[in-house]
Each structure stands twice: as C-alpha cells, then as structure tokens.
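agent: user wants the structure for TldD/PmbA family protein from Sphingomonas alpina. delegating to structure tool.
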Amino acid sequence: MLTTDQARDRAADIVTRAKAAGADAADAVYAADTALDVSVRLGALEDVGRSESAELGLRVFVGKRSASVSTSDLSADALTALVDRAVAMAREAPEDAWAGLAPEDRLMRGNAPQLDLDDGGEVAPADLKAAALAAEDAARAVSGVTNSEGGGASASRSIWALATSQGFAASYAATGYGISASVLAGEGGAMVRDYAHHGARHRSGLEDATTVGTRAGERTVARANPATVKSGAMPVVFDPRIGSSMLGHLIGAISGQAITRKTSFLLDSLGTRIFAEGVTIADDPHRPHGLRSRPFDGEGLPVSPTEFVSNGMLETWLLDSASARQLGLEPTGHAARGVGGNPGVATSNLFMAAGKIPPETLIADVAHGIYITELIGMGVNGVTGDYSRGAAGFLIENGEIAGPVAEFTIAGNLKDMFLNLTPANDLEFRYGSNVPTLRIDGMTVAGA
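agent: tool returned. relaying tokens verbatim.
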C-alpha cells in the first residue's frame, strides 16, 4: 500500500493530467484498503479472508458538463486512457447548471487536524482467530444458548486521498478493528438469535473478546420463548443500539438532495421545532479515534462540529456544493464521495446528546409498553414521514421490563415521533451514530 503522501501525490498527478488533456476543472480520489477477517463456528476455524484493493476515481468538468470514471488498473497506460476517456465523455454530457467544484475560498488550507485514526498496527491471523474463538466460546458458555452462528474478528487499514484542480491535495489513513459473536437459543421453530459487536480505530480500544461474547449470549437467551403482544397505542422505548435509526431518518430528510428534489417530510421545517425542548443532535468529525472521524469532507472543505438540531429546533440542511448552489446557500462541509460519481452528503460521528434522566426513570412510569431491541424491514416513507416497521423486544409492565415479545409492528409518523421523543442520560459512543435510550409516546403497536 502507498503511503499517505504517495496517495495524495497520485491523486494530484491525475488531476494535473486531466487539465493538460483539456478539462477546465477536475478532482480525483485515491482509495486503498487492506483487510483481514477470521471467522469461526462451533470452535473450529471457518474462514480466513484477506483483501487488498486500490482504486482511483477522476471527475472532470468541461464548462458545465462533467463526467466521472474510475479504475483499479493503475498502470501508466491505463491512467492515460482514463484521462482521455473522462474528458471525451464530459464533452458529450448534458449541461448541469449546478455542477462544479467546491468554492475555492472555502477549501481547507494548511495542515489537516490530527485525529489519531491510525495506530499503524498489524495483527497476525492467529491472533484474530484466538479472539474470534474466545468471543464464540464465551457466548456458547451462557446457559440456554443452543447453537452458534459463529464468532469473528477483523483488522483493516485504509488510505483516502483527494486532490482538486484548485490546488487542494490531502490524505489520511485509518485503521479499524472488530470483534463479534452471534448465537441462538431455543429449538426448532422457536429458535431465536442475537449478537454483539464492538469496533474501534485502535486495537487498544477494542473490548475484550470474552466481554463481547458473553453479551451476545445473554442477549440471545433473554429473547427465548417470546410471547405476542396485544395491539394498541402505547409508549415505545428504543434500545441505544437500534435507536440510532431515528437519526438516519432525520439525516435523510435534511440532506440537500431531498430538499432540492422536494422529497422530504421536513421540507418546510428549517428554523422550526421538530423535536421536544432539550433535544440536541450534533455531528463531530474531530472526535479522536472516532469511527467516522475525518479531517476534511469529500470536496476538500474543512469540517467542524455541527448541531443540526439545537434544543429541538432544526438549524441547518446538509449540503454539498451542488445542492448548496441550487438552494442559494453555502456548503456545510458534509460532502461525501467514493471513487465514482458525484459527491453526496454524509455525517461523521453523529449523535443525540444525552438527556437528564436515567433509562430506569424513563421506563418507570410506563404502565404498558414495549422495549424494542430489534427492527425489521424498511417501511419508512421519506416524503410523508409515515413509519411502520416490524420489531421484537420486551414487554414493559408497571414500569418494569418483563418477558420477550416478537412478531409485531410499530407505526406512527416521524414528525409526531420526533416531537414525542425523550432521550435518557445513558449516551455512549460505541457506533458511527449514537443515541441514548429513547422513549416515544403514543406509537401504534400491532400484534396478535
């Protein structure tokens, strides 16, 4: 794999060549990755996989016409052909009034922030195998576990570089480590499954394999022999590991593409209250070791912590340069792109700030409700906000979490759900998107 400096220079070189070939403007992405994955099942090695990839993507502009091409063949002849093909395609493309690079005066200048995303380490396959076995062994050791889908451990390192014809060129590297286990409880048609996983940028930040495995086993056994639930309107409490889906629906609704196309249920909501007072939703790309931290966005703009929702009020859209031009606004530093195509938008370390009450208190006054630990299907309409998903979890009776329940749906409208949402104070940064325990009152539960 190239060094970060070499990756940056390779992206910058292809941009220079595109300009020489007749492009008015260009940008390029170089992305490389090495990954090692080990999986085990029932105490035996099941698979060892190693992958290495390196790709380069080039986007060129001829006036308001543009084209994007990408390749994994990085030979000199292939890159020459890539540049010629891209320029020829751009000349034949339709004009786009909003196309173009990011505003030059907004580009990141100087040194990129140091986020400590790369520990530089390499892990031997034998060490990953030992971790995967330890996770699965711990899960299978939990009383009531009857079978296993396996344990896994992984290690990866990636490099990402971006260069533009306006003089921006930068790159960064990141490592990633993961460990997981998935097991089953029960027999035959009554079998249930659950899992646990932990990921970290630095290997030193990864949870102990036994801890992960034990959590997987305990979660699975707790779900055994689920009952059905009667239909009705009731409070629903979301476990933090699945409650972050609420943030996903919000981000989809405030992305520039949804707003410019007028396909968002929050289209007219900027500057208005969309959550209850006290709810804050923010994005922190500078979080050290963050799973989605980055020093600059997909167009070369600097990134900074942003509050999308402050005290319940919607403060901003997520805009790349094209959608910002169309709306007459400024890009927000949330552009994201791969090696092919135009930029879109994406968040980094997205989170809902912790509330003021413990999750036990949040549940204590629920006479009859549901604690959700799994969501199934994608019955969400981003245009209207209508929401309906299959779910599984636990009954809440008289303020206490009771037995497991399954095979029911929860439904509502995201506008109402957001306004009726209360966060607990148990926020932890474990995933790319993080929320505390969430309670939403007045949802419709449809069971047996």
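agent: one observation worth passing along. The longest strand covers residues 145-164.
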